[in-house]
Design brief:
Blueprint lengths: L15 E6 L6 H12 L3 E7 L4
Parallel strand pairs: 1-2
């Protein structure tokens, strides 16, 4: 699995992010994103899923 470097802005003290995903099926993508960010000590405020059909 390729390793991606997180942007420096995510390491600002007390930073929180909102994840935006374009499709929700099992939630695995959102869960993995939250896991990676938590390992980097980045808080996730919310996950927004949006889709136009």
């Amino acid at each position: 699995m390729p390793s991606a470097r997180l942007p420096d802005v995510l390491f600002t003290p007390n930073v929180e992010v909102v994840l935006i995903d374009d499709v929700l099926t099992t939630g695995a993508t959102a869960a993995e994103s939250i896991r990676v960010l938590a390992e980097a000590e980045v808080g996730v405020r919310a996950v927004l899923v949006t889709c136009v059909a």
